[in-house]
Amino acid sequence: MLSAICTETMLDESHQRCAAYGLSTTEKPDFDPIARNDLSLIVEQNRVLYTHALPVMETLYDQIINTHNMVVLTDANGLIVHALGDDDFLEKANRVALQPGVSWSEEGKGTNAIGTAIVEKKPTLVHANQHYLRANHFLTCSAAPIFNHQGDVIGVLDVTGDKSSYHQHTMALVRMSAQMIENHLFSAAFDDAITLHFHSRPEFIGTLMEGIASFSPSGRFLSASRSGLFQLGLPLSALKTHTFSSLFGLPVSALFDHYRTACPGLLNLCLHNGVRVFVRAEMRRTNLTFHAMPEALARDAAPRVAPQPAASETQPRRMSSLRYLNTGDAQVERLIEKLSKVIGRDIPILVTGETGTGKDLLAQAIHNDSPRAKGPFVAVNCASIPETLIESELFGYEDGAFTGARKKGSIGKILQANGGTLFLDEIGDMPMSLQVRLLRVLQDRMVTPLGSTKSIPVNVALICATNRNLREMIALNTFREDLYYRLNGLVVKLPPLRERSDLDAVIEKLLATEAEGRPCRVSDEVMRMFRQHKWPGNFRQLTNLLRTAIVMLGDDAEILPEHLPDDFLDDISHAQRQNASDTIERIVSDMSRLEDVEASVIRKSLEAHGGNVSATARALGVSRNTIYRKMQH
């Protein structure tokens, strides 16, 4: 694979180029950004890169937040098109214009990770005084070029920070993130092709280590990812003369036959160089499946004609379940955008968040929007099933496998989800012994029921959810690290209700559902209570409260405080008393003496009475002399 080391030779060559450009190490470069209209045009020209890079950048930034760093995306020429950064570092960064609209090409800014990575076409680390310009010596930059499916550099992903914040793992994170962007771009470029995911070890299928290659329906080679090129052992130019048959030693029709089966597992094929690899294939275009590929093969060889829309394409599209959940909160909107990009891509999804934030509802929405929507959605709560039964519930069992087993056995939840989606809620509560078995199922895509020696192929999309910190559990050896990295293809966090900005819209939707069409609204007074409440039970608590209030309404149409449960009103009253107490403590703590408190009260009363001492004395129940005496201190 590519080297991630900026060697002394690379630095020397870069410095020599900078001198040839006529740059001086002491000069102050031009840091003025291009005009806003010009930047908008460049962003639009790089729209595909920008769209696929943005969610990856946000995930990368979440991993380095509060480390005095920023994440930068540039175009192929080193012009910054987007940046995310810590507030405390942004001020320093602005001094050297690490902001959208500024070019960091090597010719303009000297040796730097972005510009040098573009020239070298390699991941590049430039630390402190390795920068050519002294103005940049306070920076440490780790950059990786982003390649398209034709092997051209189309941008750079970079993490730049204060030199004192350098961490040896930063470059690894940048490289992995750049490869993730490349894989997303590769998938988007070949929506109507046969796409193979392959590796010599089956557990690496579905990870960044897998190779990806695309072929036309007739088997003609189209392109491969960089990892795919490495595993195939040939340059892109040479591979373009090949077909599926010449690379894998069997006709493309073998794929069609394999995927006609109900539960196709991984194929074990031999590459042209004798290396055996495990392969999973998919046809990404939703209106063309492997069952239709023989016809597609003929179409690929025939002259191109304008396709007629299928009957289903002329019908109105079903509303997206995920879009239905988008009620105006910016955090939820970003989460939905990320999910929309991976649905149907065989990427496992891990949903985190507090209890009651709607993880199960989100999982169902993901399934409804996926190509598996017509298949089963099987939910398993790993915390609610006794530890002694969860293994048989998940994997099934043969007749007589254990005492109490029902006759004819049970196929288990995983096989019930075959062809659809398996949702494992509270995955953090799964016993360690079962985590091993689950990992094996995810790797092999085969299930062996209890009491059986026969393994059954299974094809499921996997969504998991937890309100626990799995990383902390890994540190405590209560959750397997290898399983965690198999589950977290995309990790999204549902915000708690108290942090959401769309409470009004959420309540409106819940009322429409719970009131079953009956006119019903929340009074302004009750809405003020809702806004100040912390909602420890999140949506579960809010839904139950509204359901109870609707019943208590009778024939009324407006929910008032008297329609709310007593425990909720007690919580509101306690919170108000606590807030008042906190306010008094804050005021008193700001005063060093009792006289200061008295003087403060007198001044505010005087202001309220327009400076009238007599009126102030009457209001406070003291004499005018007391007012004069207190105000002299």
Characterization of the model:
The protein is an alpha/beta fold and 633 residues long. Mean pLDDT is 81; it is low at 285-319 and 401-407. The strands form five sheets. A five-stranded antiparallel sheet has the order 2-1-5-4-3, with helices on both faces. A five-stranded antiparallel sheet has the order 8-7-6-10-9. Strands 12-13-16-11-17 form a five-stranded parallel sheet. Helix 25 (594-608) crosses helix 26. 44% of the residues lie in helices and 15% in strands.
Strand order of the largest sheet: 2-1-5-4-3
Total number of β-strand segments? Answer: 19
Oligomer type: single chain
Number of helices: 27
Rg estimate, integer Å: 31 Å
Q: Please tell me the overall pLDDT.
A: 81
Low-confidence segments, ≥5 residues, pLDDT <50? Answer: 285-319, 401-407
Largest sheet data = 5 strands, antiparallel
Please state the structural category.
alpha/beta
Percentage of residues in DSSP E strands: 15-25%
Helix content: 40-55%
What form results from the Cα inertia axes?
A: flat
Distance between the termini: 78 Å
Briefly characterize the structure.
With 633 residues, this protein is an alpha/beta fold. The protein is built from 27 helices and 19 strands. Helices cover 44% and strands 15% of the residues.
Tags for this entry?
633 residues, alpha/beta, five-stranded antiparallel sheet, 44% helix, 15% strand
SSE blueprint and pairings:
Layout: H1 8-21, H2 36-45, H3 47-64, E1 69-75, E2 80-85, H4 87-95, H5 106-109, H6 113-120, E3 124-127, E4 139-147, E5 153-162, H7 170-189, E6 194-199, E7 211-215, E8 221-224, H8 226-232, H9 236-239, H10 244-248, H11 253-259, E9 267-270, E10 276-283, H12 293-301, H13 321-325, H14 330-342, E11 349-352, H15 359-369, E12 377-381, H16 387-395, H17 412-416, E13 421-425, H18 432-444, E14 446-447, E15 456-457, E16 461-466, H19 470-475, H20 481-487, E17 490-493, H21 503-514, E18 521-522, H22 524-532, H23 538-553, E19 558-559, H24 566-590, H25 594-608, H26 613-620, H27 624-632
